[in-house]
Please model this.
Amino acid sequence: QSALTQPASVSGSPGQSITISCTGTSSDVGGYNYVSWYQQHPGKAPKLMIYDVSNRPSGVSNRFSGSKSGNTASLTISGLQAEDEADYYCSSYTSSSTLVFGNGTKVTVL
Amino acid sequence: QVQLVESGGGVVQPGGSLRLSCAASGFTFSNYGMHWVRQAPGKGLEWVTFIRYDGSNKYYADSVKGRFTISRDNSENTLYLQMNSLRADDTAVYYCAKDVGSGWGIDYWGQGSLVTVSS
Model:
């Protein structure tokens, strides 16, 4: 199972909005509404930001939102803040009954 | 609050074995599926394996199939990962993780346990 495709890096200025894409196939992202997004700061465990494409866990800022169109899911961070600087990973359930992660995106706040 | 505490990591020679444990608390362990996810140094996340809430079904990444075995003891709220025939490319931080319950997302992660395979 190949990793889902994410851009290596995305950057933005404080207050701006950025979007991270996560591209798969009809056997994973496109076939199920089981896409999640995780934030990982250096040396820390990942943190769930979005699950089931667009659901936000309790305690996660509403500046984070998720969507999906076809085989591509997206994470949008609005009102970018310095604390949002981190690595972000998507994941999806697959038709092989496995979980696949994206290759990760480094978000830089300029 | 949910806590997942891994133990059992360390240095092992190629071809050797290691068993990781994960002690869970703060939620009804027997109601949730559990994952192991690993992260090689400086690399991204790689899903390793998943076990259903009652242990009835287990799923593995191709990279570990036939070498790793996931299991759980719901009476002890503990998850395990038995790793055999270890290779250098198994070197990683191994995270124990709780399934969100709705569709193979992960809502809680342990702090991770480092496994180093080296001679």
